[in-house]
Amino acid sequence: MSFDYQARINTEITESTIGRLLDKMSLETIFCTHSQFTVPWGVEMPLMDNCMMFHLVISGSASLVVNNEEFELENGEFALLPRGEGHILSCGTSSFHTNLADLPIEIINDRYERLKFGGGGNKTEMLCGAIVFKHPLTLRLLDMLPGSILVKQESARYSAIKSIIDLLESETRKAEDGSTGAISRLADLLIVTSLREYIGNNNNDKLVWVGALEDSRIAKAIELVHQQPSRHWNLEDLSSEVGMSRTSFTTEFKKLVGNSPMEYLTEWRMSLAYGDLQNTKSSILQIALDYGYQSESAFSRAFKRTIGHSPSTIRKELHF
Q: Are 164 and 312 in a shared domain?
């Protein structure tokens, strides 16, 4: 039996790099709704800008119509709508759809709701919700994703996701006392795990940096940048590490990733720095030094050029 060692290396690089990208997605659940629908039922969901919406079927089944396409969701399956596009969720037989704003939603707390709606027939139980990604660079990834992602039971990694689904179902049914914090955290975990599964198993032309991971040299360069963001990289060092000339490395990197190696390095550093501004008490100077900058002013210029705001402005906004 032959063993493709290089393929294994590429797979491991792909997994770890995708993991790092997704781990840096700063997300927060806006709301989760425990929904109990009875046939006939239909709900019209409005567009939610800058949000990702999800629908998990706990029991029964549901029909999802988005962008004029219809999909069926069975027990244990769910759908993601990365850009929060308007859609219709129904039992599949109802021609009448009620707007979300007109439904009898019971608010339990600021992030958890209950809904009972329908005509009294067969029941479908769901957990529906929306999350917002707080990291500005995450929008670049979301724009690359399709309008809807279905996670079906035949998915290659469904077994790993199912354990999260089982926990979500259990916590949802136990949430009668209003203790709902675990549901939001599990929903966040489900979203990130599902995106990891989708990106790792789909050849989407828009996901250009995933295509870059299939080139072992470019994949290695990306991995080096991710592993050593504080190193004083220059184009010569990075191209030498992957065994390419500066010209061919720059050309191939930009073709596959969409920007130059040094631009990508800056973007990744600013992504990490944004997280540090949000989650640590490190000074701006210390963060600058941590990511390879010799002065706070040079770091601040690069940060503002990439993120659109100065580090001090971001820190004030995050801790307002």
A: no
Tell me the CB-side half-sphere exposure of residue 189, using CA atoms within 13 A: 15
Nearest CA-CA partner of 134 in 45, 52, 79 = 52
Q: Which pTM was predicted?
A: 0.66
pLDDT in tens, 242-269: 999 999 999 998 887 778 999 989 988 9
Would strands 87-90 and 61-66 be described as parallel, antiparallel, or unpaired?
Answer: antiparallel
Q: CATH number for the domain including 93?
A: 2.60.120.280
- The number of folded domains in the chain is 2
- List the structure tokens of 41: 């039922």
Q: What are the CA-CA distances from residue 196 to residues 11, 52, 120, 207, 252 (Å)?
A: 13, 15, 38, 13, 25
pLDDT digits (tens, 9 = 90+) for 23-33: 555 667 778 89
Strand partners, 38: 118, 123
Residues 38, 185, single domain; the answer is yes
Identify the DSSP state of 300. H
